[in-house]
Fold:
Amino acid sequence: MSGWRKDLLRCVVVLAVSSSLGLLTNAFARRPVPLLDSSGPGAWPERAPRVSVEQLQEELSAGRVLLIVDVRNDVPFRAGHPAGAVHVPASEFVRGYRELGLSRVLEAADGVVVMCDSAECPSGDRVARILSDLGHGNVRVLQGGWKAYEQSTLGKVGA
Amino acid sequence: MKDRRRWLVVVAPRILLGAVLLGAGLLKAGSGEAGAEALANYRLMPAALNQLLAVVLPWWEIMVGSMLILGLWVRACAGFAALLVACFALAVGSALVRGLDIDCGCFGTTTELKAGLPHVATNGFLLALALWVARRSGPQTAGADSSEARPRVAGEVVP
Structure:
């Protein structure tokens, strides 16, 4: 067999063995990824309503109780976050929501502002969707994320 | 002296490439749902494909990375790695062109690295490294089949 054919065959073997290992570990995982689920974790989330930093500042000044949920990972959160924000990384939001008993805290607030790092904020859209599905109203995503918040005069920790 | 040069030219690039792939795969392997979401953020593929890739892609990286480190099927694995890295570069490049401000998802959820020019450059470097390793590994022989393990005939010209 010529060299490149042998290499191609080896690539196919590597692909087949590693894919099988992946599918097998997923099948026995504690939280397996649902396969062929068009509304599952691989789907692009619906765009949640946005709130700008200026709007947020106005609403807070008017005495509204808004809870900021920071869904970024640990490292950027530790580097700086909004004062009084609740930290629940988007990747483990449902578990964090239950463990922290967020349901009661969110019910006591006038609204929820989900904050992430990027301007697109797909993880924020996902979390907003989860919160809406759990029955929480007035859930919005902070436009511009942490970058926009950081430049505002609103309270910060660590920045 | 010759051994040191061979180590720098052949073995070190192979181990470096293998280590990067193995590290990226291991960091992604435990976070399937987050991986599917990271892939969805690129808005390139349907949900079902994102889910499938989130399950198998880390294992492709783990297997190819391990085999490169161990020096097994080097040319085939380096070719596979080149193809993978080229796809990553295209995905990150397309996100950049479309102005998507998203996390690259390259090393799982442990880091929040933005999909941007530095990533395209890093992928370009890894692609060059993979092609270099594939080229330097020489024709395949049975067993440990890279040029570094291939016995040389007296007087043979080493390319």
